[in-house]
Design brief:
Layout: E1 3-7, H1 11-23, E2 27-31, H2 35-44, E3 46-47, E4 51-55, E5 61-63, H3 66-70, E6 75-78, H4 85-92, E7 101-104, H5 117-124, E8 130-134, H6 139-143, E9 148-154, H7 157-167, E10 172-177, H8 180-202, H9 207-227, H10 232-235, H11 238-249, H12 254-263, H13 268-274, H14 282-296, H15 301-312, H16 316-324
Parallel strand pairs: 1-2, 1-6, 2-5, 6-7, 7-8, 9-10
Antiparallel strand pairs: 3-4, 8-9
Bound molecules: 1,4-dihydronicotinamide adenine dinucleotide (NAI) and 1,3-dihydroxyacetonephosphate.
1,3-dihydroxyacetonephosphate binds at residues 107, 136-138, 191, 194, 243, 246-247, 253-255, 281.
Length: 331
């Protein structure tokens, strides 16, 4: 049995809580950022705002107090939006004991520092074991117990095996690897490409264009991940091509949806407003991805055009035209 704190009661934190509860054998605490949200969750069991239609079992403890949430747990699962992880780590670091495993399930890169989630966790808790959870996994489908395969990466093999066992169930198949950097970057960078795939769909450019975008997107994601220390095999796996395909083609993706709306000509602030507090990580990870690309001298033409659309109001049609008119090159 593990005592697990789930930090983040958005759709993914809630879906993982439901999945862990269904597996059974754990003591679970779910932390919600807002006290009002925690109160509503504790009272009704339903996460009406972020994952309506599912009931969190009554034996899952709900709290809005971070110290209470992590106290006495063996695993601390961080599932906040990426840009909020630093603030959570700052608050919990003084109370952590060295044996508590820190596992991130967020998919983003910190905007100002270009750091991955595990690097932020290691900054605040260098002696704690840590890992990351990735792979193609829409929260609604996991919450519905639809068959899903994910991957958990941890540098320490024994920790990885323990986490694999903790999360595995009849509807959640968990693979394992030791490439934390590759797994995190696969998850974060696919969001940028999903925005671009959405743009292509919103512009009604056809299936050929979408397939080209996904394929060339994968090339630049892989290039950067490898430059940052990731392994090519990881990018060919669930947290690379698996998550990229899901997010670029699945109607449930928030990132793809933002791209579709941009392609249709709507403006970013208005689109973000209509997400009603739900996070589309790619919007802020695009800048960080470009920062990393510059640091490592990696070419990322799709990411570059996506940044111009998002942050400099470039017309999506002009961005695609520019991608199409790049000089011919070897594949
Ligand atoms: N929803 C999904 O299907 C999946 C999401 N993820 C990742 O999980 C992470 C969390 O996303 P979702 O659960 O989808 O979020 P969401 O979009 O459902 O909800 C946003 C969450 O952020 C919280 N929040 C807002 N400001 C905060 C702050 N300052 N500090 C802490 N929390 C704050 C809100 O209370 C809410 O719980 C993201 O990195 C996302 O990429 C990963 C796999 C699947
Ligand atoms: O990461 C996801 C599925 O694996 C969810 O993607 P979105 O954040 O685009 O909804």
């Amino acid at each position: 049995m593990s005592r697990i704190a789930i930090l983040g009661a958005g759709s993914w934190g809630t879906a993982l809580t439901l999945s862990l509860a269904r597996r059974g054998g754990h003591e679970l605490t779910l932390w919600a950022h807002s006290p009002a949200h925690a109160e509503e969750l504790a009272e009704t069991g339903e996460n009406k705002r972020y994952l309506p239609g599912f009931i969190v079992p009554a034996d899952v403890r709900i709290t809005s107090k971070l110290q209470d949430a992590i106290h006495g747990t063996s695993v601390v699962l961080c599932v906040t939006p990426s840009q909020a992880l630093r603030s959570v780590m700052e608050q919990i670091a003084p109370s952590l004991t060295k044996d508590q495993v820190l596992l991130s399930a967020s998919k983003g890169i910190e905007e100002k520092t270009f750091l991955r989630m595990s690097q932020i966790m290691a900054n605040y808790a260098p002696e704690n074991p840590h890992g990351t959870l990735g792979g193609p996994s829409f929260a609604q489908e996991v919450a519905s117990a639809m068959p899903t395969a994910i991957t958990i990466a941890a540098d320490d093999e024994q920790i990885g095996k323990r986490l694999q066992d903790d999360f595995s169930s009849s509807s959640l198949r968990v693979y394992r690897n030791e490439d934390v950097a590759g797994t995190e970057l696969g998850g974060a960078l696919k969001n940028v490409i999903a925005l671009a795939a959405g743009v292509v769909t919103g512009l009604e450019l056809g299936n050929n264009a979408a397939a080209a975008l996904i394929t060339r997107g994968m090339v630049e994601v892989t290039r950067l991940a490898i430059a940052c220390g990731g392994r090519r095999e990881t990018l060919s796996g669930l947290s690379g091509i698996g998550d990229l395909v899901l997010t670029c083609t699945g109607g449930l993706s928030r990132n793809r949806t933002v791209g579709v709306e941009l392609g249709k000509g709507r403006k970013l602030p208005e689109i973000l407003e209509s997400l009603n507090g739900k996070v589309a990580e790619g919007v802020r990870s695009t800048t960080a991805a470009l920062g990393l690309a510059a640091r490592y001298g990696v070419e990322m033409p799709i990411t570059e055009q996506m940044a111009l659309i998002l942050h400099q109001d470039k017309s999506p049609r002009d961005a695609i035209r520019e991608l199409m008119s790049r000089p011919g090159r070897l594949e």
